[in-house]
Design goal:
- The complex is a heterodimer.
- By secondary structure, chain A is of the alpha+beta class.
- In chain A, 18% of the residues lie in helices and 25% in strands.
- Chain A contains 2 helices and 5 strands.
- Chain B is an alpha/beta fold.
- In chain B, 34% of the residues lie in helices and 16% in strands.
- In chain B, strand 3 and strand 4 (38-39) form a beta hairpin.
- In chain B, 58% of the residues are buried.
- The chains are: A alpha+beta, B alpha/beta.
- Chains A and B meet through strand 3 and strand 5 of A and helix 6 of B.
Chain lengths: 91, 429
């Protein structure tokens, strides 16, 4: 499955300034592995040492917050858009 | 004496931003609340290391009560304690703040509380506390050279941004959930600017705003990329309460919780007043109020968690309907540290809270105010709040914006013909 990943400003140092990059995977976890192989180190900024999403990061597959779905096991279909967004906004 | 409130020794990321001297007053940098990483002042809101929330840190000079009391009757009397320049009063802004602190004896008697005050922030220019925070964001946007003033909003912020942008002569773009209360839509649209209704709830709108903020460098999203400055405006609620009580801290405060920013900043404000010697150090308990239809922070508090599990909101209190509250973990920290608690109330209790406050004190609160009053009542009934300790409850918005909430509960006692006999026959008094 080829998916598109929107990268927040903070992580664009890993993607040479690109705001949107491609990755492969049938689940969010696989997509992050694929992303990390292309841009080493980026996964560790999104997922902590215990393999959980970091506290202040929201990840969406399409418009769905993966915390309401299956977390890192959330399915990604061909053409899905994954968005990584800092959580500390709003109010 | 000089007080430095930068508290951590984390790593530091320099900024390339060029600012005029004193652009942010006595603010000296941004510090991550989660990991302590420090960054220079600039259009940043999330820590470059851990995505945690950034908070403004200061190097305060001496500040005296007399100096503050000689200032204008608005939030700028606290300019030395805010991230704004000394010439802020000469800029075009809404000049919010210094709203009434009402001695609420009737409500106190009804609830069995010895001494109660209502901080009524419906008296601000666009009738909610949001004018306070937006005023900080507007100053930051100007100083950072941004050209578009924007926000995702549950309504009150939309009003405040649209109005402040109009007064400042700045282009505004406001994003709202498509099902927002009609009065809040109209009271935003009237100021001009661009108003965009998004097919989704507030959290969907917030996500979209964060994505746009990542692409548009000259847009100041007040509660996204200039959020650290914006949030400081809520400290002024705490400053005013303390000053209006005769320069002392209230023993108990009940504050509504949406993102949680207001509650944590009132606490920060109390701390700064104490450290600067403007009030005597005294214990205070902070209580949080949520609607049961969107109570992720209350649930986490009751379950003993220090993280907040997001929820899908379903409540009439739309101004508090943030299912994924950015400052939720810090609300939990603050409430637990001060010995307070967090409660939530049903929509029916919210309606009762609105009419109770109106009937006893002549204050017509929006649904968020209904939440805090109903929560106050519940806190007393459940023994969580000490009825013998002086208490301040916040009303943060105007009931005229949420008329639907009470439309089925209040109305004329009778409809009569225009004659004295009809009046007496109706037996109304």
């Amino acid at each position: 499955m080829s998916v598109s990943v929107r990268v927040p400003t903070i992580l664009r140092t890993y993607t040479k300034g690109e705001s949107e990059v491609s990755a492969e995977g049938a689940t969010l976890s696989e997509v992050l592995e694929s992303l990390d192989s292309s841009y080493p180190g980026i996964k560790g900024r999104i997922v902590d040492e215990q393999g959980e999403l970091r506290r202040f990061v929201n990840v969406y597959v399409g418009t769905e917050d993966v915390r309401f779905a299956d977390g890192l096991g959330t399915a990604t279909t061909d053409g899905s858009q994954v968005s990584v967004i800092p959580a500390v906004a709003g109010g | 004496m000089s007080a430095t409130l930068t508290t951590t020794s984390g790593t530091t990321t320099p900024s390339t931003q060029t600012l005029r001297a004193g652009a942010f007053g006595n603010a000296v940098g941004l510090t991550c609340r989660a990991c302590g990483h420090q960054q220079d002042l600039g259009p940043f809101y999330a820590c470059l290391e851990c995505f945690g929330p950034l908070e403004v840190s200061y190097d305060f000079p001496d500040v005296t009560r007399a100096q503050i009391e000689a200032g204008p009757k608005n939030i700028w009397r606290y300019q030395p304690l805010l991230p704004v320049p000394t010439d802020i009063t000469s800029s075009r802004n809404m000049e919010p703040g210094y709203t009434r602190l009402i001695e609420a004896d009737n409500l106190a008697r009804e609830l069995g509380i010895k001494k109660l005050w209502v901080k009524d922030d419906s008296g601000n220019p666009t009738h909610s506390f949001k004018d306070r925070v937006v005023a900080q964001a507007l100053s930051a946007a100007r100083e950072l050279g941004m050209t578009v003033f924007a926000c995702p909003s549950t309504g009150n912020l939309a009003n405040a941004v649209a109005a402040a942008g109009a007064r400042a002569g700045m282009k505004t773009v406001v994003f709202i959930p498509h099902d927002l209360e009609r009065p809040k839509v109209l009271t935003t649209a009237v100021y001009g600017g661009t108003l965009i209704a998004v097919k989704g709830n507030y959290d969907d709108v917030n996500k979209l705003a964060s994505e746009i903020a990542g692409e548009e460098d000259d847009w100041a999203f007040v509660n996204v990329n200039v959020r650290p400055y914006y949030a400081e405006g809520s400290k002024t609620l705490g400053f005013e309460v303390a000053e209006q009580l005769g320069w002392r801290l209230p023993p108990q405060v009940v504050i509504p919780v949406a993102s949680g920013s207001q509650l944590t900043k009132v606490d920060k404000g109390f701390g700064e007043l104490t450290r600067l010697g403007l009030v005597d150090e005294s214990p205070y308990r902070i209580f949080g109020a949520q609607a049961s239809g969107c109570a992720p922070v209350s649930a986490a508090f009751k379950d003993g968690y220090d993280v907040v599990r997001p929820v899908k909101p379903d409540t009439i209190a739309k101004s508090l309907a943030i299912g994924n509250p950015a400052d939720g973990p810090y609300v939990l920290d603050t409430v637990r540290r001060t010995g307070g608690s967090i409660e939530d109330v049903t929509d029916e209790e919210v309606r009762e809270g609105i009419t109770l406050l109106a009937r006893t004190e002549g204050v017509f609160a929006e649904t968020a105010g209904g939440v805090t009053v109903a929560t106050l009542k519940k806190l007393v009934q459940t023994g969580q709040l000490d009825p013998d300790a002086e208490t301040v409850v916040f009303n943060t918005g105007d009931g005229l914006k949420t008329l639907d909430a009470i439309a089925d509960r209040v109305g004329p006692a009778a409809t009569i013909d225009p004659s004295y006999s009809a009046f007496t026959a109706a037996d109304l008094i």
